[in-house]
Amino acid sequence: MLRIAVPNKGSLSGPAAEMLHEAGYQQRREAKELRIVDPVNEVEFFYLRPRDIAIYVSSGRLDIGITGEDLLIDSGADAEVILPLGFARSTFRFAARPGTATSIADLAGRTVATSYEGIVAKHLADQGIGASVVHLDGAVETAIQLGVAEVIADVVETGTSLRNAGLEVFGEPIMKSEAVVIRRTDATADDGAEPKVQQFLRRLQGVLVARTYVMMDYDCRVEQLEKAVALTPGLESPTVSPLHNEGWVAVRAMVPSKEAQRIMDDLYEIGARAILTTAIHACRL
Ligand SMILES: Nc1ncnc2c1ncn2[C@@H]1O[C@H](COP(=O)(O)OP(=O)(O)OP(=O)(O)O)[C@@H](O)[C@H]1O
Ligand SMILES: O=P(O)(O)OC[C@H]1O[C@H](OP(=O)(O)OP(=O)(O)O)[C@H](O)[C@@H]1O
Ligand SMILES: [Mg+2]
């Protein structure tokens, strides 16, 4: 049975459960459940604090886990990213009151509050900056107002939390992060879990593709086919079928959903008609 760690709370937990559900895995019904078994897929899910997941996975007790890339790096655990999942995207940045700091060099001799002590301490050491780090569990934006630190290092998505606290980012982003699937670093291909791990990854990749692509169908004149196919190259190559009306073909190809409207306009311009898009519910590439 494959043993998988899933975030039990916080920003990662809802989207992770949704993705697993879309991939056909049974998920818990109540937020208080800490472990469930999906007998059909032979998977056991453990609902753990996102911050602890890399530690469980690196210990080898659990085969794989879903966590944040920043949490993995912060933990220093011996685990690696095997699949980025495209949600919980954020950057990790320094921030302070406007006018207090403009670059990382301004941190020398100052105090930085953060929930990600591992990332911050390493970044400061790499840059040769001597600053003290205060660990706080959350709501670190308030640390400046309350005088616990002059600078914070925190997760930034929209920047709303910083603005509300009257703070501004400065310096280069320390790192970018998103939700990821992780596995212990020394896992080998002859690991008994390997086939199940690969099947799990294929399923999640299928969900990612279904979320980012749509299926496009249209009719066009044979003379326009090459131009049309250049607009919709598909993944391998589009399917082209003859129509009953001579001189016309039907074309079918996957296209990135973000570009679907522009591609439909361009196809119309070159004379394609009956242009349709449909959602992809699941897929194996
Ligand atoms: N507002 C946000 N937008 C995108 N990702 C976020 C956001 N806040 C946290 N994350 C990401 O979620 C992960 C942290 O999850 P965690 O559950 O520890 O914290 P949280 O979501 O802030 O929950 P809480 O603070 O309630 O415990 C990290 O990978 C972080 O980058
Ligand atoms: O840039 P934004 O869109 O505002 O998002 C970033 C904020 O979201 C998270 O906070 P959360 O609400 O999880 O509270 P916390 O600080 O206590 O973790 C994170 O720690 C930032 O504070
Ligand atoms: Mg938080």
Automatic annotation (TrEMBL):
It comes from the Bacteria. Residues 49-206 form the ATP phosphoribosyltransferase catalytic domain. HAMAP family: HisG_Long. The gene is hisG. Its cofactor is Mg(2+). Its EC number is 2.4.2.17. One of its GO terms (molecular function) is ATP phosphoribosyltransferase activity. It holds the Pfam family HisG. It is found in: Cytoplasm. Belongs to the ATP phosphoribosyltransferase family. Long subfamily. It comes from Streptomyces fructofermentans. One of its GO terms (biological process) is L-histidine biosynthetic process. Keywords: Amino-acid biosynthesis, ATP-binding, Cytoplasm, Glycosyltransferase, Histidine biosynthesis, Magnesium, Metal-binding, Nucleotide-binding, Transferase. Gene3D superfamilies: 3.30.70.120, Periplasmic binding protein-like II (3.40.190.10). Residues 210-281 form the Histidine biosynthesis HisG C-terminal domain. The lineage of its organism: Bacteria, Bacillati, Actinomycetota, Actinomycetes, Kitasatosporales. InterPro entries: ATP-PRT_HisG_long, ATP_PRibTrfase_cat, ATP_PRibTrfase_HisG, HisG_C, N-reg_PII-like_a/b, N-reg_PII/ATP_PRibTrfase_C. It is an enzyme of class 2 (transferase). It catalyses: 1-(5-phospho-beta-D-ribosyl)-ATP + diphosphate = 5-phospho-alpha-D-ribose 1-diphosphate + ATP. The keyword Lipid metabolism does not apply. This is ATP phosphoribosyltransferase. Pathway: Amino-acid biosynthesis; L-histidine biosynthesis; L-histidine from 5-phospho-alpha-D-ribose 1-diphosphate: step 1/9. Catalyzes the condensation of ATP and 5-phosphoribose 1-diphosphate to form N'-(5'-phosphoribosyl)-ATP (PR-ATP). Has a crucial role in the pathway because the rate of histidine biosynthesis seems to be controlled primarily by regulation of HisG enzymatic activity. Its main location: cytoplasm. Feedback inhibited by histidine.
